[in-house]
Amino acid sequence: MTFRDRPLPRSQRAGDRAPVFAVGQRAYVSGAGSADGSVVLTDGASTMAVGRLNDGAEVEITEWVPRGPATRYRVRSKERALVGWLAVSSLRSTPASVPTPSTAAPVYVPVEARRSQAPSSGGGASLARRKR
């Protein structure tokens, strides 16, 4: 028997990994990418729609088919008792969606623009100097 001197190659980079949910775990529907905020549950072959769930709907994972970023989960809706399959991209672990860094980033305002928006009376500037 021979042993390899180097580690096995990784099939995915760390940034490309999709979230992993365990069978029996609660998850929440992530309909952020759709126009109406809902996702379609499909049958096992992904050929027929069996229902729709709104963003934030709580589901329970009952089965899964591992395929990396294309992993699919069979879920049961807690409130509507619908059963069907969702892509991993349609699930999240938190009840509320978390804003992406691009939408949560502060807006840069140049110093010159801030100076031009300052109050014209001298009271604001003198107040700022007194606080220092």
In short:
The chain is 14% helix and 27% strand. With 132 residues, the protein is an alpha+beta fold.
Walkthrough of the structure:
The structure is a single chain. This protein has 132 residues and is of the alpha+beta class. The protein has a domain at 18-96: SH3 Domains (SH3 type barrels), CATH 2.30.30. Helices cover 14% and strands 27% of the residues. Strands 6-5-4-1-7 form a five-stranded antiparallel sheet, with no helix packed on it. Strand 4 and strand 5 form a beta hairpin. It is flat. 14% of the residues are buried.
CATH class placement of the domain at 18-96: Mainly Beta
Beta-strand content bin: 25-35%
* SSE sequence, one letter per element: EEEEEEEHHH
Strand order of the largest sheet: 6-5-4-1-7
Number of strands: 7
**Please, what is the average pLDDT?**
77
List the helices and strands and how they pair.
Elements: E1 26-29, E2 38-42, E3 49-54, E4 58-65, E5 72-77, E6 83-87, E7 91-92, H1 101-104, H2 111-116, H3 123-131
List key phrases describing it:
132 residues, alpha+beta, SH3 type barrels, five-stranded antiparallel sheet, two-stranded antiparallel sheet
